[in-house]
Amino acid sequence: MTYENDPRFSGITRFEKKIWLASPKMHGEEQKWVDEAIRTNWVSTVGENLNEIERQIAEKVGVKYAVALACGTSALHLATKLAGERLYGQALPNHGTLEGKRVFCSDVTFDASINPVAYEDGEAVFIDTEYDTWNMSPEALEQAFRIYPDVKLVVIAHLYGTPGKMQELRKICDAHGALIVEDAAESLGASYLLDGKWVQTGSIGDYGCVSFNGNKIITGSSGGMFLTDSKEDAEKVRKWSTQSREAAPWYQHEEIGYNYRMSNIVAGVVRGQVPYLTEHIDRKRAIYERYREALSDLPVRMNPWDEEKSIPNFWLSCLIIDEDAMAPSVRGDSDYLYETVPGKSSPHEILDALAAFNIEGRPIWKPMHMQPIYRSHAFITKEGNGRGRSNAYIAGSGIDVGADIFRRGLCLPSDINMTEEQQDVAIDIIHRCFR
Ligand SMILES: Cc1ncc(COP(=O)(O)O)c(C=O)c1O
Question: Does the domain made of 29-274 have the CATH classification 3.40.640.10?
């Protein structure tokens, strides 16, 4: 039986046009700045659009310098490399700056946050998540420093636009002399109360990174930015991102280079979007609040945030199903199976039901410690080593918060182009999954 024929969903009509998880919203000014770049022939990796967005984003986030790059991943790579170089010195051209070094990393995040550790030949150690904000657990980070006291670099992401517990995380890192690469790819415009002062995510770590990928809160179609208060670091990243040319009449190179700079055309799209950042956040927040209100009668909760210490950008609205309302379900590496049980549901039942009516949701980002590529890497929970916790002779097993959120949670359609009526249909479908 398909969902469209399932009597639980009778009367609902499939949308002809797909309702997206998070799609771009253009406003018209993007075209103006792109046209301007073409008209004036500034179509390469220099130009007024680049200068302007670097100035505007630095000002918005509250850092002194911003360097526009091809994508958030390139910003994260150069931030990670810079941290490696600052900590351990310049590496040979065929070696990464983190060779032989461990780096503590957020676990429930997109892999682009932490792959740069591997690009730089480092070994990611994954730090478990906490339930309050779904971000890196300060308690687990403390445990990690107890087990690996020599670690000097921590990569922290703010999941779905919700700031993590940066006050606590920063304090722990400072106590161990560790640098922070802050991945604010999903959280541009979110703020956090640090030391009694409201600051923006992306300005809290030693290096900040944002993304203008097509699904982000504002977009350039692609693009990202490296953020810092250090002029020297900004200049270094700008140099690396344009093939590391030295000051010589010919192509002269003393360092490995990259072709990571943003184009002035992409920058034109970003420039057209920047004035709409607040409007996008307001719209995302309204979507979140509508879900929170409309789903309050179900055995689910929305993705949480610290209402006293943070204001998310509400990039993605998510829900997590109460344990006792979870229908049995299992996941393989690329497939899944679930039971339909009255009064209960599961992430894939909801996602399948939404998809049947042409509405896009998504599973929670699968934790990095569960990814096949990183299965051999250490994983630290607030209890200590998170690997090998079950015991054939002892009942019970260790806490794994990330795995639990992945098992019971899902991302809801959070598109700012979605109308209230369309959101109501999604809400209705979710209710019917629990019948
Ligand atoms: C948390 C996080 N980090 C990094 C990235 C990478 O950004 P980009 O796609 O711009 O390379 C993304 C999303 O794409 C992300 O969600």
Answer: yes
